[in-house]
From TrEMBL, chain A:
The keyword Magnesium does not apply. SUPFAM superfamilies: Periplasmic binding protein-like II. Pfam families: TctC. This is Tripartite tricarboxylate transporter substrate-binding protein.
Automatic annotation (TrEMBL), chain B:
PANTHER family: TRICARBOXYLIC TRANSPORT PROTEIN (PTHR35342:SF5). It comes from Vreelandella nigrificans. Keywords: Membrane, Transmembrane, Transmembrane helix. This is C4-dicarboxylate ABC transporter permease. It comes from the Bacteria. Signal peptide: none annotated. It holds the Pfam family TctA. The chain crosses the membrane at residues 7-30, 42-65, 109-132, 144-160, 167-185, 197-217, 253-275, 317-338, 350-373, 385-402, 409-439, 459-482. Coiled coil: none annotated.
Length: 328, 501
């Protein structure tokens, strides 16, 4: 009994430690001088969260500091990101896992409290995940062309995981480029959206690759195209949308990107340490294996190139949001 | 089975047993602390599982999930502070029982019904996963819409006393649930530019405020220090009482299993549906809400019945039904496993080892729960003048811990005042809660159905599932109306008689 009581006490202490009350591991004068917070601007459990926890685990092996993941969900990713943008004394030790929500959020929320480009420094694009245009297995459409031709005749529905998600915006982009009639059907997350697609309640979706890969392999869903610039090594037989060559689809190149950013005041020294550490993380076997399991490609850009990528991504989504009438 | 020995080899490793035991203990403890939910604990434990064997990793998370489901009921019963949203229903009868000096009995009833429900849920997972998963796929937006309509009729049975006050509370709950992001257009509603409200009103601060704070206010308002009996925790649960609740528990478990197998409804709704079903059928109807052991059993059976069943869509379809299973899905993927039909072909031994572990976790829950009750029930013996300041501290901490945000603390205190007004005006809080939980589901599925059906209303009567729920909804309302009218007639007759006299 006493033992059980001790275990209980230990777990409480463990919980408290894990909740961020842990003592700082202070080293010499060099950065980092305290624990690093990795803010996840989404609730636990999604791709951003799982990725961040994996990265945090590897990063703290490379740095002389604990890396503590903190979920700050809300309003797309704008609540957590807004907090980072405000800076404060923790800003030197806070990084954030940004994703398409960063640029899409900026494109659809007019009165955002921060500038998605100028208020941050861009450290490293960690992974890219293509979206896949999928239809139910019993759908009559075998190719993108067939689908578009049908969508010109009749109103189609596409499911997505929430307003402003990359899945939603990809659907809107497709609708705009092909000038077809498509109605967006929102769900609370991909978990809720998937049954509607599998059950044939909606005609199509532009889901993230990891969510649908096993269903494509088992034959429950049919992949018509991937949204990345190159074919995915996980679905080598599936064409890219830009390959289709018609209906302006050559302009359709998007991926769900995930990358680390920090406040604009993040010091030069800290940036250098982070770049070195992240380079090492991205070369590690564990990281590459993890990316493969997600159906993701390791990220290509860092620093200024990453910033340029964000600027372009932002411009694209601003255009789509305006066309689709979802900017506020 | 051909590879039975392989299954045994995978399952019988010390790591697995330690993982389950640790998971359940962490779950019970974390679940019992207001504001710390099983979801958080599972998310925090996830990185630790990266270096573990896949089966042990998943079992650790499943253990936390199950422990957390039960743990939430402990503080709900003892201090009227639900440790997790799913245990909000447990306090309706659990707390009155504790006040009457039956804390231990309530805790035991909660534990045994949790364990039985968990067991039934596991059986359903192991033997009927494929079948239930098929039903889940037929559950589209219109079917959901009618399920929610039926569930909303619960309000009628929970509006103990005045129907008008019950409906008022429910509508207020629905009104508050509208705050935040509109799911279809993505526009902000009733947020008044406050970014803290942009997502929605946080559920946990609302829960804590609504239930725990009014008790504290009431205590200090009266200022009289009640003399606590030497042993307020009271006796345990007699076997005869458990036997009396058994059909309720089994029915509640089955409700939990069905709700759990359908992605996206959740344990909280299951607990309330099971509770109202039990109340409708019980001979002790009048005692519900005043400390009825059957009420505790029904609520806990409902929410624990969900636990095993949410693994059904996860394992057979790769679809997570709630946030916790979404995190568990993440854990699978970290280990290179993708839940879904293919896993049943490629990793069958692993799945069966997992099933064995899940079954074993029910037994661990029973043991850990019993130890926990032994210590936790002592809380009931602490004088309230000492207990309540500590409870208040936990309320503040719990509200803060959800988003690490002081705004939620103010929100919790504001709902404390609302709860106090409700208490004074004899407005039941349960319908308010139901409205708050089910309101958004009602709206979203209504609008989703219309989008899917291109505004054609025939989608609402598209198949046997919708017909069944329409019949249940209409029946439930008709029954309530009949009871309401006949009660009025009886009252009028009685009044007429007394006037004649």
């Amino acid at each position: 009994m006493n033992n059980a009581f001790h275990t209980t006490c230990l777990s409480i202490c463990g919980g408290a430690l894990a909740l961020g009350l842990s003592v700082s591991s202070v080293s010499a004068n060099e950065w980092p001088t305290s624990d690093i917070r990795l803010v996840v601007p989404y609730a636990p459990g999604g791709t951003t969260d799982v990725l961040s926890r994996r990265v945090a685990d590897l990063l703290q092996q490379e740095l002389d500091a604990n890396v503590i993941v903190e979920n700050r969900p809300g309003a797309g990713s704008t609540v957590g990101t807004g907090r980072l943008a405000r800076g404060g004394r923790d800003a030197q030790h806070t990084i954030l896992m940004a994703s398409p929500g960063h640029t899409i959020g900026a494109a659809i929320y007019a009165d955002l409290s921060y500038d998605p480009v100028e208020d941050f420094v861009f450290l490293q694009n960690m992974i890219d995940i293509p979206n896949v245009m999928v239809v139910p297995a019993d759908s009559p459409y075998e190719s993108v062309i067939e689908f578009v031709e049908a969508a010109k005749e009749q109103d189609m529905t596409f499911s997505h995981s929430g307003v402003g998600s990359s899945i939603h915006m990809s659907g809107e982009l497709f609708k705009t480029l092909t000038e077809t009639n498509m109605t967006a059907v929102p769900f609370a997350g991909s978990g809720a959206a998937l049954p509607a697609l599998l059950g044939g309640d909606v005609n199509v979706s532009f889901e993230n690759m990891p969510t649908v890969l096993s269903h494509i392999r088992s034959g429950d869903l049919r992949a018509l195209a991937v949204t990345s610039a190159e074919r995915s090594e996980y679905l080598p037989d599936v064409p890219t949308l830009s390959e289709v060559g018609e209906y302006n689809l050559d302009q359709f190149i998007t991926t769900a990107w995930f990358g680390l950013i920090a406040h604009s005041s993040f010091s030069e020294e800290a940036q250098n340490v982070m770049h070195d550490a992240l380079d090492r993380v991205m070369e590690r076997e564990e990281f590459l294996d993890f990316a493969e399991q997600l159906g993701a490609e390791p990220g290509q850009v860092s620093g200024d190139a990453f910033k340029q990528f964000i600027v372009e991504d932002l411009e694209r989504w601003e255009g789509v949001a305006q066309q689709a009438g979802i900017s506020q | 089975m051909e590879n039975f020995s392989e299954v045994i080899a995978i399952f019988f490793s010390l790591d697995n047993f330690i993982a389950i035991a640790m998971g359940v203990v962490i779950g019970v403890v974390v679940g019992s602390i207001p504001g710390l939910t099983a979801t958080m604990a599972v998310a925090l434990a996830l990185p630790f599982t990266f270096s573990m064997q896949p089966v042990a990793a998943i079992l650790l998370l499943v253990g936390i999930y199950k422990g957390g489901m039960y743990g939430g009921s402990i503080t709900a019963i003892l201090i009227r502070t639900p440790g997790s949203p799913a245990s909000a229903c447990t306090l309706l009868d659990g707390y009155p029982m504790a006040q009457q000096g039956h804390a231990k009995k309530a805790l035991k009833a909660a534990l045994y019904s949790s364990v039985i429900a968990d067991f039934i849920s596991n059986i359903a997972l192991i033997f009927f996963a494929a079948y239930l998963a098929k039903i889940a796929l037929n559950f589209g937006a219109p079917e959901f819409f009618w399920l929610i309509c039926f569930s909303l009729t619960i309000i009628i049975s929970l509006a103990s006393g005045s129907m008008i006050k019950g409906l008022m509370a429910a509508l207020l709950g629905i009104l508050l649930s509208l705050v935040g992001l509109d799911e279809v257009y993505g526009s902000q509603r009733f947020t008044f530019g406050n970014y803290n409200l942009m997502d929605s009103i946080s559920f946990i601060p609302l829960l804590i405020g609504l239930f725990a704070i009014p008790e504290i206010i009431e205590f200090y308002r009266k200022k009289a220090l009640p003399h606590i009996k030497a042993k307020a925790s009271g006796a345990g649960l007699a076997f005869s009482e458990l036997k009396r609740c058994l059909t309720t528990i089994v029915r509640g478990s089955l409700i939990g299993v069905i709700i759990g197998a359908i992605p996206g409804t959740g344990a909280t709704a299951a607990a309330f549906i099971s509770y109202s079903d039990a109340r409708r059928r019980s001979p002790n109807k009048a005692n519900f809400g005043k400390g009825e052991v059957e009420g505790v059993a029904a609520a806990e059976a409902g929410n624990n019945g969900v636990a095993g069943a949410t693994m059904i869509p996860l394992l057979s379809l790769g679809i997570p039904g709630d946030v916790i299973t979404a995190i568990i899905l993440g854990a699978f993927m970290v280990h290179g496993l993708t839940p879904g039909p293919i896993m049943f072909q490629e990793n069958l031994s692993l799945i069966y080892a997992l099933f064995m572990g899940i079954m074993f976790s029910s037994i661990v829950l029973l043991l850990v729960g019993n130890v926990a009750i032994k210590y936790f029930s002592l809380i009931a013996d602490i004088p309230k003048s000492i207990l309540f300041p500590i409870v208040l501290m936990f309320c503040v901490y719990g509200a803060y811990a959800v988003n690490n945000d002081t705004f939620d603390v103010w929100l919790m205190l504001a709902f404390g005042v609302v709860g106090y007004i409700f208490n004074r005006a004899a407005i039941p809080a349960a319908p308010f809660l139901i409205g708050f939980i089910l309101g958004p589901m009602f709206e979203d599925n209504l609008r989703r159905s219309l989008l899917i059906g291109h505004n054609d209303l025939s989608i609402f009567v598209r198949g046997p599932i919708t017909w069944t729920f329409i019949a249940l909804t209409v029946g439930s309302i008709a029954l309530a109306l009949y009871r309401f009218i006949s009660a009025r007639r009886d009252a009028r007759n009685a009044a007429g008689k007394s006037q004649q006299e």
